[in-house]
Request: fold
Amino acid sequence: MKVLGIETSCDETGVAVYEDGAGIVWEELYSQIALHREYGGVVPEIASRDHVRRLAPMVERALTETGPPEAIAYTAGPGLMGALLVGASLGAAYAAARGIPALAINHLEGHILAPLMSADAPQFPFVALLVSGGHTMLVEARALGDYRLLGTTLDDAAGEAFDKTASLLGLPYPGGPELSRLATEGRPGRFELPRPLVDRPGCDFSFSGLKTAALYAARDLDDTDVLARADLARAFEEAVVDVLAEKSRRALEATGHDVLIVAGGVAANRRLREALQRMAGARGARAIFPAPDLCTDNGAMIAHAGWRRLAAGEQPGESRVRARWSLDELTSPRGPIVV
Ligand code: KG4
Ligand code: ZN
Reply:
């Protein structure tokens, strides 16, 4: 059984084919970052138009190379409405023309299930930390389609905070990886930045106060102090990582699970990987990260999530895209789970 996956929720056009027993047999990913860079963020209308230009030839190539699939899975939300509509319309149209099911996949579920593609894949249940440019949340994944939100950001996403702080430091968009690189040259202890919400119970996050604290510190930097930017980058990264590690620790403690999977673009951050591995190790738990190219948005995670749902008996539902779509609203392919 082969499932073709389509991802167009933001600024990446992704197409991939997942096959039983073989895993990902075809993948193409096109990033629009260069188109959005001059605006310092993703411009929705530019994103939709570029998906329109790129997607159909990518799907044609996948079909030519891998043959007819048994189903098409497309990202139906959350994400940018116009961008989602491109993938959903094309996916639903191809599926209708070929008389095969079209599956509407939740982008966040795609991220959370991505580590299950690895050779040493964890089993349910586990805790997932999803950290990207658009989302920051801790989720208890009990079974396919059975997710409980443990905490989420009350304002900015972690990746967004990285990007905004990087921009204060004069780094190009998207600045997360650049800020992280600069931080490796920084020295610890020079700047004291807050750890928002760590003094309060629960697993919610807040990053806007930290970003503002970084803004004030950046305004006072002495231009002649060549290490100051690197020191501030390091202080910022350490603050974000401390908060993510502490809230993840609480999520493991609250659920009693011993596997933490980490997904989303920020999961590529080296300091975060080390801190989460340390935290999990100290509890006798495991922190699992998908391969770096599976951390960021891609078609493979959507093809894979579609394949899992189809294999579990999912029937195609109505084709509807949603800018907002919480993991709490998902159900298992065989209907709501009664616990
Ligand atoms: O998952 P993703 O590709 O797209 C979204 O769905 O948002 O995540 C992109 C985000 C950006 O904010 C980017 O700056 C951040 O992930 N990011 C990083 C690193 N690599 C990517 N943040 C910190 N350190 C990194 N190494
Ligand atoms: Zn994403």
